[in-house]
Design a protein that fits this description.
By secondary structure, the protein is an alpha+beta fold. Among the domains are: about 15-145, Trna Endonuclease, Chain: A, domain 1 (3-Layer(aba) Sandwich), CATH 3.40.1350; about 150-340, Alpha Horseshoe (Serine Threonine Protein Phosphatase 5, Tetratricopeptide repeat), CATH 1.25.40; about 565-650, Tetratricopeptide repeat domain (Serine Threonine Protein Phosphatase 5, Tetratricopeptide repeat, Alpha Horseshoe). Helices cover about 60% and strands about 10% of the residues. The protein has 31 helices and 8 strands. The chain has helices at about 15-30, 90-95, 115-125, 145-170, 180-185, 195-210, 210-215, 220-225, 230-245, 255-265, 275-285, 290-305, 310-325, 330-340, 345-360, 365-370, 385-395, 400-410, 420-430, 435-450, 455-470, 480-495, 500-510, 515-530, 530-545, 550-555, 565-580, 580-595, 600-610, 615-630, 635-650, and strands at about 35-40, 50-55, 60-70, 80-85, 100-105, 110-115, 135-140, 145. The chain has a 6-stranded mixed beta sheet. A two-stranded antiparallel sheet has the order 4-7. It is elongated. It starts with 12 loop residues before the first helix and ends with a helix. About 35% of the residues are buried.
Length: about 650
């Protein structure tokens, strides 16, 4: 009876093998680098163990999904291990998580092998493109999961995770209106292969194609696979970082500092191109802004380059940059010229020489060199940068049409480059001119500015001032006094900055039209906000609307903030005449003459006041003086002669 209960489920040999494999992994896993997070059997869809990467005893939540396979089969002739019948579904499942692992355990030898799923798929794509149509594959393990291999893998995992986190943060912190710019500037993240030779192939390909930023982003991944102290292996990684620094793109000072001793150690290596090595050292110090050391290395490099003109030209250009930063512009100029003499089409040299002339205010020469800078994916000079400086030069030359053409082209890239709008804004304000074309094109600029930044007061404010300036210059445009005033009314309802000044401008507009009633209303608005500053123009409008006493009260108010000049006393005197205060008017005209004795009006008006006050001797004296000294003021002279005839008839 009892024998019937001896028939129980048998434990398959494969289960025993895989259990031994999992135990072997647990024993060999470095607890300094990884922490095991076991999976629940009932939820195992293809992952045996979660391994969490640790940093300084801290958990990171960077989980590596790990599938463990064991076999008692013989190793391959080359010492590698092959395990067959791996489900494609399992490969796809693991690929969903970065850096998932297959662990292969060879039972007879007790050796643990590993294969990163990304490396597995890369191999399959190159050796068996039809693998996706299969149900199962064979995984060939070549790398042992030694402590050294675990350290390298750990560095790759941590480096890659940090890059992904930073990319996510950059997007999370980016306002919607800047997303396009961030995406345009995005540097792709690559997974550096675990195979050293393949990693070197990746590195050479990226460097030769000028993808320095991608290499920089993957620096820590490359350092996990390659020897950072070996110039033959790691040199291109260092040079990529140095290139970024020299080209004024984001770079790491720390990486360049790591590069310098490696480069310097090769100065005694007879197999190394010494001219190139000193040149690279010069660029490294240039990137660190250590200009004396950069200069020293460039000078040594020039001595060793021989007749290699292209390299010497680049070296002269960079040496010129050192001298420029060291405050020796004449030396910089000579080296820029030598660079162009050796390589007439060297874009960077023409750009540097153009900037040199711009700093020296040699604008025509600056434009000549900047015009020779051609952009064809040149990593040293961006198209937008060139356009920005060309616009500055053209403004300085007074070529406003061409300058605004550059500005308009530049604004097309404003979504990609954050500096463009502030740069153009400053250019327009910096180069304000009396040229009518300037204000016509500036009006278009401010309208574009308002479209992009409707809530910023500057666009509305400078648009209003530009329209007013066109009115002053006599340039016809679509705005009348009423539409101009409406712009200010809307502006005043939304902004507080400089509202009084704008109402003052509206008052002047009406004044130019001879519309003193509207001028008075606008000046009154300015005066209400800042009475001391805008009282004078209000007083003038009061005089012209026959409100003389109000004008006098404002002009004689001690708080009036206006220059006490001849014109001020003339206005005050004219108001006093109208209220019959001839003595007051006489005093004001005399004050005006003391300030501006070469202005005709107060002399004739003073004589008239004396005449009206029946002080004929004084009137005669001033009329005769005015006629003698201002004979070309025919209208005043004619009236003065008539007054003298009257005075003569009175016996004087």
């Amino acid at each position: 009876m009892s024998d019937s209960f001896d028939k129980l489920p048998k434990r398959p040999q494969q289960h025993k093998t895989e259990s031994r494999a999992v135990n072997a992994l647990r024993l060999q896993l470095s607890d300094q680098l990884f922490l095991e997070q076991s999976c629940s059997d009932e939820k195992d869809y293809g992952t045996d163990i979660h391994i969490e990467a640790m940093t300084s005893d801290s958990a990171t939540n960077i989980r590596i999904h790990t599938q463990v396979k064991g076999t008692e089969s013989n190793l391959n002739n080359d010492g590698s291990l092959s395990i067959s019948d791996i489900d494609i579904a399992n490969v796809n499942y693991l690929f969903r998580q970065p850096h998932s692992l297959y662990i292969g355990y060879h039972v007879p030898s007790g050796q643990l092998f590993f294969k990163v799923v990304e490396d597995l798929i890369r191999d399959l794509e190159h050796t068996n493109p039809a693998w996706r149509q299969q149900d199962t594959i064979t995984v060939r393990f070549r790398d042992l999961f030694t402590p050294e291999a675990q350290t390298c893998f750990h560095k790759r995992v941590i480096a890659s995770a940090k890059i992904r986190d930073q990319d996510r943060l950059n997007l999370l912190n980016t306002p919607p209106e800047h997303l396009l710019r961030v995406m345009e500037e995005y540097v792709p993240n690559i997974d550096v292969p675990n195979d050293k030779q393949l990693a070197l192939t990746y590195l050479r390909e990226l460097y030769d194609k000028g993808h320095d930023a991608i290499i920089s982003k993957a620096h820590n991944q490359f350092s996990a696979i390659l020897d950072s102290g070996d110039i033959q292996e790691f040199g291109l990684v260092y040079l990529a970082e140095i290139n970024l620094a020299v080209c004024h793109r984001p770079y790491s000072n720390d990486i360049i500092r790591q590069a310098i001793p490696v480069l310097e150690s090769n100065n005694t290596n007879p197999k190394i191109n010494l001219a190139g090595n000193y040149y690279n050292l010069g660029n490294a110090y240039l990137g660190l802004k250590d200009y004396p050391k950069a200069r020293r290395n460039f000078i040594i490099s020039l001595r060793k380059f021989g007749e290699r003109k292209a390299f010497k030209a680049q070296c002269h250009k960079n040496l010129g940059g050192c001298y420029q930063e060291m405050g020796r512009p004449k030396k910089a100029f000579r080296h820029y010229q030598q660079a162009i003499a050796l390589s007439p089409q060297l874009v960077e040299a023409h750009f540097s020489l153009g900037m040199w002339h711009l700093r020296e205010n040699n604008f025509a020469e600056a434009l000549d060199h900047l015009d020779r800078v051609t952009i064809s994916d040149n990593k040293h000079v961006k198209t937008a940068t060139l356009q920005g400086w060309r616009a500055d030069v053209l403004f300085n030359l007074g070529e406003y049409r061409s300058a605004f053409r550059e500005v308009n082209a530049l604004l097309l890239e404003a979504d990609k480059e954050q500096w463009i709008w502030p740069w153009c804004y400053q250019l327009i304000l910096k180069h304000r001119s009396e040229d009518t074309y300037y204000y016509q094109y500036a009006l278009t600029f401010w309208e574009k500015f308002i479209e992009c930044f409707p809530s910023r007061f500057q666009g509305h404010y400078y648009k209003i001032l530009t329209i007013f300036r066109l009115k002053q210059l006599g340039v016809s445009n679509q705005y009348t006094f009423d539409s101009f005033k409406e712009l200010i009314t809307v502006y005043a309802s939304e902004h507080m900055e400089n509202v009084s000044f704008l109402w003052d401008r509206a008052g002047h507009w009406a004044q130019y039209d001879g519309d003193w009633l509207n001028a008075l209303k606008c000046y009154q608005k300015a005066y209400e906000k800042e009475p001391s500053k805008y009282g004078y123009c209000l007083a003038v409008s009061l005089i012209n609307t026959e409100k003389y006493q109000e004008a006098i009260d404002i002009l004689e108010n001690p708080s009036l903030d206006h220059e006490i000049d001849g014109l001020y006393f003339n206005q005050l005197a004219s108001a006093k005449i109208q209220i019959g205060d001839l003595e007051g008017a006489i005093g004001n005209y005399r004050q005006s003459i003391e300030i501006e004795s070469d202005y005709h009006l107060p002399w004739f008006e003073l004589a008239g006041c004396y005449c009206n006050a029946r002080q004929y001797p004084e009137a005669k004296h001033y009329f005769e003086y005015a006629i003698t000294n201002f004979p070309n003021e025919t209208e005043y002279v004619d009236r003065a002669n008539m007054a003298l005839e009257f005075i003569a008839s009175m016996g004087y």
